[in-house]
Amino acid sequence: MKIEIDGNSGFCFGVRNAVEIAEESLLRGEKVYSLGPIVHNDMEVKRLLSLGLISINNDEFRNLKNSKVLIRAHGEPPETYQIANENNLTIIEATCPIVKKLQSKIRRAMNETHKCAGQIVIYGKPGHAEVIGLMGQTRGEGIVISGPADLGKIDMKKPVCLFSQTTMSVKAYEEIVGLIREKMRAGGIKEPEKSLIVHKTICGQVSNREPDLQKFAREHEVIIFVSGKESSNGKMLFNVCKKINPQTYFVSTPGEIDRMWFEGINTVGICGATSTPKWLIENIRDAISKISEQK
Ligand code: SF4
């Protein structure tokens, strides 16, 4: 059985950067807390825990004093930095530069939308850490939409400044844009193109993977998609593969592999999310190789 790993899979630049920053601090022997799991991958979180990185939740963060806290790639709202200041916490900044840029774009857009009584709309997963960080830039005035069912939250008669969470599907974002324009037109807005300002803020590290993964999924009989269950882009990229190749399976650990998936199969492709470590993808490959040898 031929087993191939997708060359583009593994950590994106932002996650790799955050993990390296954490490792550098830990290697200096520092005690470091991570506000939330550093990456949406339990296996990698466990590895970093074994090096000493302690994940804490928001309540624990509020009660923490005089310590070092790492801000992960998803970023945080301004309130987090205020608490850190009050509690004498040293922030280790590992927010992805692309997310940082998006946060400041939203802050600037807030001032503009105030002038024209418009609305900031963020297309993303409600409650996702990145979305909480982005909403924080709007001082809670932004509107989060996660799909067509949420469009009723927007006042279609007022100008809209639209942003996307960095890990959403490009196609789904385009569909949302089309639907908002339609609803604006139906509401009497003659030139929705002027009333709706669309910011293309899906990260290239995710959007560029979509066409590559489609090709990869087509080229193999079975696809093993490796990701943490909490990963937003993991779910999205898994669906990209599944649509092309119905024999696509989602696994988070080697223990979840089912040998039945490979009965009568000659080619297997392994790929993953932007939060899937390369070492885990390689472990999955080794587990499949063993199954192949026993066939
Ligand atoms: S997906 Fe893009 S924006 Fe998100 S952490 Fe990775 S590089 Fe940064």
The CATH topology of the largest domain corresponds to Cobalt-precorrin-4 Transmethylase, domain 1
Radius of gyration: 21 Å
Order of helices and strands: EHEHEHEHEHEHEEHHEHHEHEEH
* Main sheet strand line-up: 1-12-10-11
Task: Please indicate the count of domains.
Answer: 3
Q: Helicity, in percent?
A: 40-55%
Ligand roster: iron/sulfur cluster
* Major beta sheet summary: 4 strands, parallel
How many E strands?
12
Ends distance: 9 Å
CATH structural architecture of the largest domain: 3-Layer(aba) Sandwich
How confident overall, as mean pLDDT?
95
Structural class of the helix and strand makeup? alpha/beta
Structure description:
By secondary structure, this protein is α/β, with parallel strands linked by helices. It folds into three domains: 2-10 and 207-294, 4-hydroxy-3-methylbut-2-enyl diphosphate reductase, catalytic domain (Cobalt-precorrin-4 Transmethylase, domain 1); 13-96, 3-Layer(aba) Sandwich (Rossmann fold); 98-165 and 168-201, 4-hydroxy-3-methylbut-2-enyl diphosphate reductase, catalytic domain (Cobalt-precorrin-4 Transmethylase, domain 1, 3-Layer(aba) Sandwich), CATH 3.40.1010.20. Helices cover 45% and strands 17% of the residues. The chain contains twelve helices and twelve strands. The strands form three sheets. A four-stranded parallel β-sheet has the order 1-12-10-11, with helices on both faces. A four-stranded parallel β-sheet has the order 3-2-4-5, with helices on both faces. Helix 6 links the parallel strand 6 (119-123) and strand 7. The termini are close together. Residues 12-15, 73, 96, 98-99, 166-167, 203, 205-206, 274 line the site of iron/sulfur cluster.
